[in-house]
Write a structure and sequence with these properties.
The chain is mainly beta. It is built from no helices and five strands.
């Protein structure tokens, strides 16, 4: 079951995904993003050290590092 969160502004459910991206210099980074439907790369839980926040204007969820 994919990790999901519900927007407080519009009531839609978003599912957390991740994918590996190789940069021009050869470094590989992990990208995290939310999508309305679970698909390839859906994650079961939040990565360690991150928390979910919401954009006040659009209501879209964001993943931020904990302070």
């Amino acid at each position: 079951m994919a990790f999901s969160t519900v927007s407080k502004k519009n009531g839609k459910t978003y599912h957390l995904h991740s994918r590996q991206q190789t940069l021009r210099g050869g470094q590989t980074v992990t990208l995290y993003y939310f999508a309305s439907e679970p698909g390839a790369g859906a994650m079961d839980k939040l990565p360690d050290g991150y928390e979910v926040t919401e954009n006040d204007r659009t209501g879209l969820p964001l993943l931020k590092k904990k302070k």
